[in-house]
Batch of 4 targets.
Target 1
Amino acid sequence: MFSITSVSPSSPALQALVTELDAFQEQLYPAESNHCIELTAVAEDKISCLLVHNQQAEAVGCGAILLQDNGEAELKRIFIRPSYRGFKLGEKIVSELEAVARQAGCSTLRLETGIHQQPAIRLYQNCGYTICEAFSPYQPDPLSVFMVKRL
């Protein structure tokens, strides 16, 4: 019913979903608590981006992983359009990104999300992530939740 494909950070479909995600987060958090990354500003060998397509080939979800040189990686830009939530697409994106991390030799995955995104926090907890302290490059933020998972 849904397919997941790897895409370039500059993919127009990916950029459209990221724009939707940014608009959603801007309603929840002040600018200083929106820790967004411009996917196209990262070296392509350090980032892997995914899109979820429905049967009509419409992009309905996305996610990315930022690979670091220390055997760690950070999940970024995970988003599912509201009308497609409830199909376990978030779990599928996280699983695919974890596979990318394993293939790249990563042993630790981290992420930052916001306190007002309780469904996202539950998703990550259900996928085995636990709450942790802020990690570089972040500073502690009362509106942020930091999570980690060892692979």
Target 2
Amino acid sequence: MTGCVSGWFGRTVALSVAVGLVFGVVAYRYLVEGVRVLQKYPPALDARGLAVSLVLAVAGYALVRALRPSAAAERPFDWAALRLPGTLYGAMFGTLAATMVVMLVEPTVFAVTVREGQFLSIATEVVFIAALWVLARTALAVRRVAVARVFGLRPAVLVWLMFLGVAVVLGEEMSWGQHWLGWGTPELFEGNLQRETNLHNFYTHRFEAAYYSAAVLLLVLVPYAWPQRAPRLLAPLAPYIPPPSMAVLALPLCGLMYNSWNFAAYQLWFFAGLWIALDLWRHAPRREALAAAAMGGLLAVSQAVFVLFGGGMAEGHELTEIREFLIAIVVWGYALMLAGRLRAMAAASAGRSAALGARAQPRTA
């Protein structure tokens, strides 16, 4: 991807093209094919299905062109200071690669490894707990820091709000302890799709669409698009926005689809992820460019495998469980990044306060 869409008018046109194409696909499928927006069914690989994918690939390209920072000098490539642990990249890449291999060799294995109460479900909950631990320690460490406020709220308050959000996700993930303690489902939750003590399985498809789309927006698109010099209204958010390395780490969240491949929004995220990987491969520092190329390449190849061979899965929803595990890893990575950034700001703030205090001391003869 070369150049960028310059000016607000060009960005608005590109964004309008992306939105228009997505709504056009949704309208076509509903009016012509009778398919609802969140209706799950096997991937359409006929001429019409491939044409729709091509349209959404163009929409993803337009979206990325609209979001790309306006000049190379403004791109927030502070990679060295905010480098995430290599083990996180390894976990994301390895999980996606292993999922692809299992899909090719024996996809029925997923049914006994990723369902509720099995290995991957427990691992997801453990990683979310690790993220909560990091957020809690960070909030306590910066409780006296007054800089980096957003809407007047101190960093500690903001981190505790993040803690609360992750705790709610974890609570829903483990059905508020039912998976571990095994109590009977209360009568209030009898209408639950899986007869569990949670809210998200009352509206599973809608919750999944909102949850997964929010993950892609916050963990892929925003880190990629955030400029070094943000508009004044958004500038206070800058300390909490992850660097482009987070977008590379989170690229696998744009894939892992089989019976939801036909969702227009999901294909938009997938193709946008590929265009972002291509752009970062061309413009990021060498080490990060290679990471973007590797993750983007695996994203493309694995999604082709899931589309072609996903019918071999025993239950059909196994890939969504794996995506939730990867979301937990990226949230943990964000918590680690935020901890390092806010602790550094706290140390700098304390150093400035000490320096000012020393200057204020009266000089003695």
Target 3
Amino acid sequence: MKIKYSIVSFILLLLFFSSHQTSAQDTDSSWSHNWDKEAYKDHGWDWDSDWDWQFSFSGFEHPTINLSYGLSKYSLKDLVTPVSDNGLGELRLGYTKEKKTFRSDYIIKHQFNYASLSNLSYKLGLEEKANEINAEMWRFGFGWEDGYGYKFGNSSVILYNTWGMNWSKITVDDTIINLADREMISLFKDDFHFGTLSAGGIKIRPIPLIEVEAGVERSAIYSRVLFWKAAGSLLIEAAGQGLVDSFVRNVLSSTPAAAPVVSFLLKNGLSFAMYELRKEKMNWPFDSASPVMVDTYRVGVTFIF
């Protein structure tokens, strides 16, 4: 148990560094050593917000409820028998924070930190198929969503990227005939297994209280956690996302209107590439077993209070 808690703590720390990057602007000699908060706010540096690395819901402004429905598809390298597609039902509870960027009044910075509970099942609007592995999964975890958007009066359009970690329990029927498939599935079924996810999508907020959204999510479920290999793989992804964040801040400084689109394409492109590389090695680039991959197309409605 101590090892499991150490793994979780370490991954949390990695996440904090990757999703709460500090933003600093160019300084000149006249105030390079002046650490007054108000002076830095004039140059776009919100000291209290940009240096808030803790996972604390209390620092966020608006309680938020998100309800989602989606269609999910499983895959596992070398699995012969296909797994039934699942419907997804998910509840997310968390807090949303938004602020205008210093270069433009109509470009906003968006953050949504949440805890989630999900059920993936062929019973959620789908039919059971005799020639497929009928699977069901319960999942709980935490996620960190951020991005930029365009504000139009009381309405807005937000382009986002999400990174999350979760624990999933898969149950399957006992009618798997292929012995090799049965052995592979046995590595993942019945117990809770650690995994990560990434998602990208668009949110449309017609009025301040309600958002509607559509997005694509990719998640990987590990058969077991190899601490150093998992840490190394996640550090590579965190470093890449950090470089993207830095580049997007420069775009925001020079061409604010392009920042939401550039951030959306680069951050989600990097996430997609990492999960493609992890299809065969869950801890890419290090040798490791293949994970169960779950691709989900989802729609949802969000209530912001």
Target 4
Amino acid sequence: MNILFVPSFFPNGLEDIVYSGMNKLRNINLYEYTLKPSYHPDLIPIEAFNKIFPNGVRPSWLLQHGSGKYICQQGEYVDLDNFDYIIFGSTRTEVLPLLSRTIKKASDRTVIIDGEDDPFVRSIFKYVKVYFKREKLDRSYSSLSGINKNNTISALTFLSRGLKNLPLITPIPQIRNIRERIKSLNMTVIEHQFRDCNDLDIDVSLVASPTNKVRLTYAKALENIAKKNGLKIYLNNGSMHPIDYQNIILHSKLVVSLPGAGYDTFRYWEVPYYERCLVSYRLPIIIEHNFTDFESALFFSSTAEFEKKILWGLKKDRYEDLRKSAKVLFNKFHTDLKRASRVIN
């Protein structure tokens, strides 16, 4: 199978995850158009690389990355007839000219991966073979009015952001009559090497910039829980070096994951990838083969439940069984190879 993969220019979570996984599949020839600098640091000047990654520091999810089998350079003519499928890693502005030409000539072979931080789909879904959405709302969140009013991440914020884009990708809510035409595809972690540690000297850690009220609420709640119960916590609401951030997770018994710009975050997947116990705010999106409360993770919807789950997980070292179960589940269903396989299948 010949696949043309069209990435955006800058690092883009879900797009980069799928690309990494596709490089590990044996049954496809992967062509990339155009060359994405973060995929090929050895092919671009160091000055250009450092503009994307200041001081040469990559995020943890790009510490290691594969390279496509073949590369089509920008400016070269691409004959779409040479490919079984054309996969667009995003609907960002830089890919729109080729996307427009592709859907006119090969809509039945065009695939969209929409990994943006919102629960809306773009109108382009009507003209392509398959449309993958990072945040596909579950059945209890099937419209704008269905988004839980207690969730402080505003759907209107997402909508106003989307309207700044071109009309081709105007966002629309996932209303019931179109919902089944959209496929879910969640984030995960690109496989990379890291040095594990056995010294779990932090009871609970929370690293999260204060980008919304949910994060502010639970950061304050964690401080109160720690003070009341004598817990050792790590709380950071600023930026961190990727390696320092990774080390905090690796030293933690429980790691809290909260929604950020969107519901599906790297944190949600990094915690089980590093084999630590995930303590997560319940997310209103579809996650196939998701972790299970009290078995492979701990979930909460209120500050009262947040405290109960933390104390339960720390009692008698219950977090040990949870983190091991989560790692098994992650390896079985949630690697970058599994994400790419879902797209190809």
